[in-house]
């Protein structure tokens, strides 16, 4: 298994550590932590966050990303 702190969703969209996202079927805002790739090639993205007062870690497939929130420049 390999891990990295950056993942390219598409040619124009790249997730880096700390980027805030919304995930399908999960409440709250989630911050990207890292990406893991198994020896079989399965990709798993790890996030931390959730509803206010309930911080937790979740690992999801890339297709579960609903929205990437803009960060102030």
Structure description:
With 73 residues, the protein is mainly β. The protein has one domain. The protein contains no helices and eight strands. The termini are far apart.
Q: What's the layout of helices and strands?
A:
Layout: E1 2-4, E2 6-10, E3 13-16, E4 20-23, E5 29-37, E6 43-50, E7 56-60, E8 65-68
Antiparallel strand pairs: 1-5, 2-3, 4-5, 4-8, 5-6, 6-7
List keywords for this structure.
single chain, 73 residues, mainly beta, 6-stranded antiparallel β-sheet, globular
Q: How helical, in percent, are the residues?
A: under 10%
Please identify the structural class as seen in this structure: mainly beta
Helical segment count: 0
What's the number of extended β-strand segments? 8
Order of helices and strands: EEEEEEEE
Biggest β-sheet, characterized? 6 strands, antiparallel
Q: Extract low-pLDDT stretches.
A: none
Q: Distance between termini?
A: 34 Å
Counting structural domains, the number is: 1
| Global shape | globular
Strand content: over 45%
Average pLDDT, rounded to a whole number, is: 90
Radius of gyration: 12 Å
């Amino acid at each position: 298994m390999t891990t990295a702190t950056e993942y390219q969703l598409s040619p124009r969209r790249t997730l880096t550590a700390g980027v805030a996202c919304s995930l399908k079927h999960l409440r709250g805002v989630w911050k990207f932590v890292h990406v893991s790739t198994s020896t079989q090639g399965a990709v798993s993205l790890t996030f931390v966050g959730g509803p206010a007062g309930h911080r937790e870690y979740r690992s999801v497939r890339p297709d579960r990303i609903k929205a990437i929130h803009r960060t102030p420049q």
